[in-house]
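Predict the structure of Patatin.
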Amino acid sequence: MADRSRFSLLLLGGGARAAYQVGVLKAIAGEVPRTHCTPFPVITGTSAGAINATALACYAPCFHLGVKKLEWVWKNFTTDMVYTSNFSTLYRNVVKNLTARNEHPTLKQTISWFDNSPLQALLTRLLDLDRIQRNIDRDQLRALAVTASSYHSGDSVCLFQSKDNIEPWIRAKRRGIHSPIKIEHLMASSAIPMVFPSVELHGEYFGDGSIHQLAPLSPSIHLGADKIFIIGMEQPKNRFTYQDEVAMPPTGGAIIGHLLDTIFTEALTSDIERMQRINQTLHFIPTESRKKCGLKPISVMQLNPSKNFNEIAARHYTSMPFSIRSILKILGINNNTAINSSLISYLLFEQAYCQELIDLGFEDASAKMEEIKAFLQL
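Done. Here is the predicted structure for Patatin.
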């Protein structure tokens, strides 16, 4: 029997793209007994992945039920469940953010394009966060970690809820804080820069956890895991920046999408490479010396989408609210150029798009299920 306390699930950020994670989890749930607890005692998440991770932690005693709850929410999503999209509220918010800070420099007001208070209301209604500690106390969950980025210190801050024997940590540009997970932690972790407002926590303002997250594997390792299953967001590249073999300049929307791709995916690639080098080095160090140094080899399996999210999002572009498309048009994104920018794939919280990502995740995981089962020892 595998020591399940060693297994961790890592869910990355990506706005609406996180629907893909639900499809992968749905496929894995099909390989677990219906009434079985989570196969991932350590669950860590960032941004939208933090929300999915927290939902799974709430339903740790029954993995099937947790995945079913997630799927129901994602396949019934509309933009208005995440952020306000009517013309009056949207433009009032934009104008307020452009003018209020200039007129009142000391005003405690966060800057953002959209008001995501509907998401906060949705999470408050759907998530019973008191369940997390009960699940930990009953040994049905070892730890839950949510990562956010401090705009004040520039640190990547891991907020974790776990057994008392896991100590907080401080490393270069990252730290772990033992704290019961609250709705405001999820709002902070998913506050995409400029898109959603930053959140005040512990006397600092925080934004999306992917911003300063140079070591995405760190929370899982600090929380005791040495086998980490990652549902990634690194998609096949298709930039469409050429026309008749002539390079075309990127639009504002394409540049923003490129920056978001960098924030959400690049750090993980570097961290996995670093982990692999450390694993190779450990082969030359005697076991006793490893223990004294607190080092151990880490195994990772990463599943990335087989299809390009931008292409899928472009097909569903017209399902976005007209007011959102009007703002995107200012950035050079319209029905003809939608495929050139990743931005749409992050903001498109609409049923048909989310369902297609769920289906893609299910297909990708099913195609590699034997490999996944072997890694997770299911």
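The domain at 7-84+112-234+260-308+351-376 is CATH 3.40.1090 (Cytosolic phospholipase A2 catalytic domain).
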